[in-house]
């Protein structure tokens, strides 16, 4: 057999292989059968939405609205609000095993990276030297005065709600009930020696 | 490739911010550079005080909530004045001190915490520590050079992978040629056996120059050859088609390009940040939720990976600032925020209902069970097929954890009632729940 046909066949084979491999483009999801059954007409929360001015489906509720069962925290993000919260609120949840367990789980995930598993200000990103250490709950001094171990329920809740210094607000990640569970667990960590 | 650069950059940052190996030695070296400012304190004692009290608002070489502290001794050159300021800053502002008021205005009127518990010596120690560490700045700046070379070598790593891939393709092509050669040789022998004279072959080589398609024409006349070629094509197309159809709607390995080169390997792997820190919806809702940018800003208000980019803010972190219309210089948010358009990877068809909290909170399944080794992924790809077969196989094997689950307690109670012959209504079994009908 002649060389031309051998080369021709080899060329065909290579093209076929390239074509088949190029079908597996990782940045494309691939074929879908009847996609109109997959994507409902209703908008998903994280989808674009032309009906709103900012183009998002997930809209912020109008100010002043409360979800059902939502307890308001009527203390402003000021020094006065902080002191008023300290005097005015106590943890509404009963101290029990379930609340402490959930508080611990939430604390480890949300606060642990900076404050550390024992609240000593030695979380994973602090240990790596990427972030400055927050004061220890048991031995530190609060930047708003007083020892960290003397912080009240209201003060801790106020800080979770609004943040302080380098700490941001955790209101979007923790529901009010979850915040109180974290407060309960932080009160335990204040006793750590 | 940029993703690797970020990872290396942040690890470079670690070395840049490392604690001083020997601060007293450094103090000796720094003393001549201090110029007019007198440093009479113990930097080692100052370090502990500085880290416990100052770092939540100040850094040495960049603005955080308050001003950068390096060079503060030279700037004011008055120890007694600085001690007075640090021990009670609000009083300084209230007294109308010009420089204190200027700083107060410049930093968004954030009052500095008073530190009445500090003795004058405590403040001197802190100032000594700032002096020593602040002078180390040029040393730390040397670190990015090393990190950059690291990134370059990582780049060649990627191209190595491509070269290996190309070599593999060429090898496969070579193998194909060999096999085809074999096939052709066999076919030729077949043709010869059919009684075509050796002479004809000689003719062929001569005719070759005249008519290029002569060989093909002759092959087309060979019915066996035509049959096998067609059969080969049919088999190839059929197997290719079957594979394609089998994988229709299965997006395993889907790895789209995201608007920010966010590395899960760095955040969840190296930094050990819990998945739920960002995807906090996984515990309490159907959706695991993509974090809003305020969650990014919890850390990236401070972490800017400037060590990696010669003092510039990392371009990927800048994308967060741009999206939020945030000015890192003044730390003020503008009024034109735009959402980041992340590309969704794991996408169940809307005809299937899936609830994250049911799996994560109730069943206690690890994220990795479905999403794969996320903490090792520079770029996330779809790990599981997310097919109905895949769901069902897991549901067949997974044991229900019924202890301490109030739902199963109710079911058992209802079961006991039925056994006793008592009346059990649909309402007892949750028949009055809205979602039973209005879904």
TrEMBL record, chain A:
Pfam families: Cytochrome_CBB3. InterPro entries: Cyt_c-like_dom, Cyt_c-like_dom_sf. Residues 98-190 form the Cytochrome c domain. Keywords: Heme, Iron, Metal-binding. GO terms for molecular function: electron transfer activity; heme binding; metal ion binding. SUPFAM superfamilies: Cytochrome c. It comes from Pedobacter puniceum. This is C-type cytochrome.
């Amino acid at each position: 057999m002649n060389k031309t046909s051998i080369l021709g066949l080899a060329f065909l084979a290579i093209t076929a292989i390239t074509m088949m491999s190029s079908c597996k483009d990782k940045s494309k999801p691939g074929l879908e059968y009847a996609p109109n059954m997959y994507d409902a007409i209703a908008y998903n929360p994280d989808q674009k939405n032309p009906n709103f001015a900012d183009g998002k489906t997930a809209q912020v509720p109008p100010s002043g609205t409360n979800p059902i069962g939502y307890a308001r925290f009527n203390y402003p993000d000021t020094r006065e609000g902080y002191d008023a919260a300290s005097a005015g609120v106590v943890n509404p949840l009963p101290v029990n095993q379930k609340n402490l367990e959930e508080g611990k789980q939430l604390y480890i995930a949300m606060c642990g990276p900076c404050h550390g598993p024992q609240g000593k200000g030695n979380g994973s990103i602090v240990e790596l030297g990427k972030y400055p250490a927050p004061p220890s709950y048991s031995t530190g001094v609060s930047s708003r005065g007083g020892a960290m171990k003397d912080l009240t329920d209201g003060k801790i809740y106020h800080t979770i709600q609004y943040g302080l210094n380098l700490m941001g607000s955790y209101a979007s990640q923790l529901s009010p009930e979850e915040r109180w569970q974290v407060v309960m667990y932080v009160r335990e960590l204040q006793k750590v020696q | 490739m940029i993703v690797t650069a970020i990872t290396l950059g942040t690890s470079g940052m670690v070395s840049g911010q490392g604690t001083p190996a020997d601060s007293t030695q450094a103090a000796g070296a720094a003393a001549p550079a201090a110029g007019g400012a007198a440093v009479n304190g113990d930097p080692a004692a100052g370090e502990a005080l500085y880290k416990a009290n100052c770092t939540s608002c100040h850094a040495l070489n960049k603005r955080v909530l308050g001003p950068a502290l390096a060079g503060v001794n030279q700037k004011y050159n008055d120890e007694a004045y600085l001690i007075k300021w640090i021990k009670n800053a609000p009083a300084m502002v209230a007294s109308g001190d010009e420089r204190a008021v200027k700083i107060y205005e410049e930093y968004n009127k954030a009052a500095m915490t008073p530190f009445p518990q500090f003795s004058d010596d405590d403040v001197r120690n802190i100032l000594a520590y700032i002096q020593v560490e602040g002078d180390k700045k040029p040393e730390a700046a040397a670190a990015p050079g090393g990190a950059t070379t690291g990134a370059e070598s990582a780049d060649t790593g990627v191209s190595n992978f491509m070269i290996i891939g190309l070599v593999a393709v060429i090898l496969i092509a070579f193998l194909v040629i060999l096999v085809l050669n074999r096939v052709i040789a066999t076919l030729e022998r077949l043709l010869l056996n059919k009684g075509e004279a050796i002479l004809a072959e000689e003719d062929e080589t001569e005719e070759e120059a005249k008519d290029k398609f002569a060989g093909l024409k002759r092959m087309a006349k060979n019915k066996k050859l035509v049959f096998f070629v067609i059969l080969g094509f049919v088999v190839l197309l059929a197997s290719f088609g079957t594979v394609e159809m089998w994988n229709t709607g299965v997006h395993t390995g889907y790895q789209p390009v995201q608007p920010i080169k966010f590395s899960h390997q760095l955040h969840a792997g190296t930094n050990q940040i819990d998945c739920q820190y960002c995807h906090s919806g996984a515990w309490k809702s159907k959706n695991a939720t993509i974090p809003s940018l305020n969650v990014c800003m919890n850390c990236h208000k401070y972490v800017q990976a400037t060590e990696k980019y010669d003092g510039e803010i990392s371009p990927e972190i800048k994308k967060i600032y741009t999206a939020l219309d945030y000015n890192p210089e003044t730390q003020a948010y503008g009024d034109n925020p735009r959402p980041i358009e992340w590309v969704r990877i794991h996408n169940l068809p809307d005809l299937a209902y899936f609830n994250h909290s049911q799996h994560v909170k109730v069943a206690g399944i690890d994220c990795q069970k479905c999403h794969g080794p996320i903490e090792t992924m520079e770029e996330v790809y779809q790990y599981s097929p997310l097919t109905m077969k895949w769901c069902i196989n897991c549901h067949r094997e997974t044991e229900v954890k019924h202890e301490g689950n109030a739902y199963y307690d109710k079911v058992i109670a209802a079961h006991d009632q039925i056994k006793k012959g008592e009346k059990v209504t649909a309402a007892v079994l949750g028949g009055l729940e809205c979602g039973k009908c209005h879904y």
